[in-house]
Specification:
It is a single chain. The protein is built from 15 helices and 16 strands. It is an alpha+beta fold. The termini are far apart. A 5-stranded mixed sheet has the order 2-1-6-7-8, with no helix packed on it. A 3-stranded antiparallel sheet has the order 5-4-9.
């Protein structure tokens, strides 16, 4: 296969890249041979290459429909019901606090030095600035949620790569695709095709990726792009889907039913008059002529033109306000006019509401948040008042945030490596423990924790008289208060620190006021107030309880606080 040059950059040196390619878990080079490619969930087009079979592309259900599918998702998002549901998801996932902060980087669990943590926080703020996160956070998350994927090109100064990322430029997902080339070689012993190398890159075409694969376009290095997907794949695990994909059928059904309902109401709403014309024994031709004459006779004669304000004669409409005088023959029924009733069930929309519920269920939105005929609605109360749908929706939003955070991972990794703050290997260790703290608008978590703590304290109050007799303090802390070993150690340290601060503020707390036994608080030569001598009323060998007085050692500070 001919070599090619990638447009972009590589953050590894040649030695590091050669070393990494020897890693069997790296897709760029597989040392151990296998006939099965590694499982990937990024929806890349798989290109099979080899000297024996030539070159071919697996196009079954991949690029042939993906561009049209993205366009369809965007058209769906313009529908009123879909737009309302999407806004509800985005508003729940992206929440600003009173300081305008949406997400923060949490490095509390990362075992690195404080100066390095400070630099990582600064670079994370730079990433947010490059994304224009303060003004575009809702729009960025909305794009990713609708399209199911997002591409950003990380622009750097190739002459000064240590300056880091200069710009993050959004790329339309209909113009770029990820390509994975798999090189196969034939095993001389078994004759089976084994995978020897996997090369990945992005292919960009400003005119859009067409339905069939071609090498027309610019090949972009893998590490110069930010690529975040929804994590949803089709049944063949070959094409990335959006979270709107499940709502395609319910939305189409809702559209058709709404159109049918409107047509039925327009057709059946007015009452119609039926004219029974007595033609007697007239032949067919004369009877039809007589019928046309009657129709012309009872056409409207005077109409009002709303466009000009004129009242004029127009016979295109039947009379609606005039009276009728019709002759009736003796012994015969004669001409008769009757009225057909209009539609009787025009106000029933249960079918429409059913498909609305089905649409919101497909999107994971609680129907109680939408407009409905049900009284009441969503309210913030006790946890017992929170519906199960709200709990599921809260967890669904958390999963969306975790998937979307990949955009921060890739950008932050590139920024830290380019600036020499950490290496790729160090980043992988940091990545396992860092967290992104999103602001929350759903108060369910806060109410749940508050109610759980209240219940635990109630149980603690009931079990407290039996502590030391049937239950130990450690058992109560672990099983009633649900405190872990780390929580117990941290709380003990905090209590000791608070006790030391109280002692510094009021030194008298170290004496009898802290609950120490009388006679333990006085220093040699300085009797406690209100007690004869330093021995708490016991006669001592010297005045004021001198050094020769026999007395037990004073209690330690920890014992005093425990006694308190």
């Amino acid at each position: 296969m001919a070599k090619f040059r990638l447009f972009g950059f590589t953050i590894l040196t040649d030695e590091e890249q050669e070393k990494q390619q020897q890693n069997p878990f790296d897709p760029n080079q597989m040392k151990e041979k296998s006939f099965a490619p590694p499982q990937q969930d990024d929806g890349a087009i798989t290109v099979q290459t080899g000297s024996y079979y030539g070159t071919y592309v697996d196009l079954d259900g991949v690029s042939r429909n993906e561009v049209e599918l993205i366009s369809r998702y965007r058209e769906m998002s313009m529908q009123p019901e879909m737009e309302s549901a999407i806004d509800d998801v985005v508003n729940e996932a992206i929440v600003e606090d009173e300081f305008g902060i949406v997400v923060e980087l949490d490095l509390e669990e990362v075992d690195i030095k404080e100066p390095t943590k400070k630099k990582i926080h600064e670079e994370f703020d730079n990433i947010l600035r490059l994304l224009n996160w303060k003004d575009m956070s809702h729009e960025i998350f909305r794009r990713w949620y609708i399209d199911g994927r997002m591409f950003y090109h990380m622009v750097i100064d190739e002459t000064k790569p240590s300056d880091g990322i200069k710009e993050l430029r959004y790329v339309d997902p209909r113009r770029i695709r990820k390509i994975r080339e798999i090189l196969r070689t034939k095993d001389p012993k078994t004759g089976m095709d084994l995978i020897s190398k996997i090369t990945e890159y992005f292919l960009f075409n400003d005119r859009g990726i067409m339905g069939t694969y071609s090498n027309l376009g610019t090949r972009i290095a893998l590490d110069s792009m930010i690529y975040v997907t929804s994590g949803l794949l089709d049944s063949k695990r070959a094409m990335v889907l959006s979270y709107l994909n499940k709502a395609i059928k319910p939305l189409n059904q809702l559209r058709m039913l709404e159109d049918a309902t409107v047509i039925y109401r327009l057709a059946r709403a007015p009452e119609r008059r039926v004219f029974y014309i007595d033609v007697g024994n007239l032949p067919k031709n004369k009877a039809e002529q007589y019928l046309r004459d009657i129709m012309t006779k009872y056409r409207n004669k005077i109409v009002y033109d709303a466009s000009t304000g004129d009242v004029r004669d127009d016979r295109r409409f039947l009379s609606m306000q005039e009276d009728f005088w019709l002759p009736r023959r003796e012994g015969g029924k004669g001409t008769e006019i009757s009225t057909l009733p209009g539609g009787q069930n025009l106000g029933e929309i249960q079918d429409v509401e059913y498909f609305q519920k089905k649409l919101f269920k497909a999107l994971g939105i609680p129907f109680s948040r939408m407009e409905s005929n049900q009284p009441g609605g969503f309210s913030l109360g006790r946890t017992t008042e929170i519906s199960r749908d709200e709990i599921k929706f809260s967890r669904f939003v958390d999963r969306l945030r975790n998937k979307f955070s990949g955009i921060f991972d890739t950008a932050l990794k590139t920024q830290l490596v380019l600036k020499g703050i950490c290496t790729v290997e160090e980043w992988e260790e940091i990545r396992q423990k860092l967290r992104y703290d999103y602001r929350r608008d759903n108060n369910f978590e806060e109410m749940k924790q508050s109610e759980l703590m209240q219940n635990r304290l109630t149980v603690l109050q009931l079990i407290d008289p039996y502590v030391g007799k049937y239950f130990s303090k450690e058992w109560v802390r672990r099983n009633v208060l649900q405190q872990t070993d780390e929580d117990i150690d941290e709380i003990d340290e905090q209590i000791a620190e608070e006790g030391s601060d109280m002692l510094e503020a009021d030194p008298s707390l170290a004496g009898g006021v802290m609950g120490a036994p009388s006679g333990y608080g006085g220093a040699p030569g300085s009797p406690m107030p209100g007690a004869p001598g330093a021995g708490g009323g016991a006669p001592m060998g010297g005045p004021g309880g001198g050094a020769g007085a026999a007395m037990p050692p004073p209690p330690s500070l920890d014992d005093a606080f425990r006694a308190r």
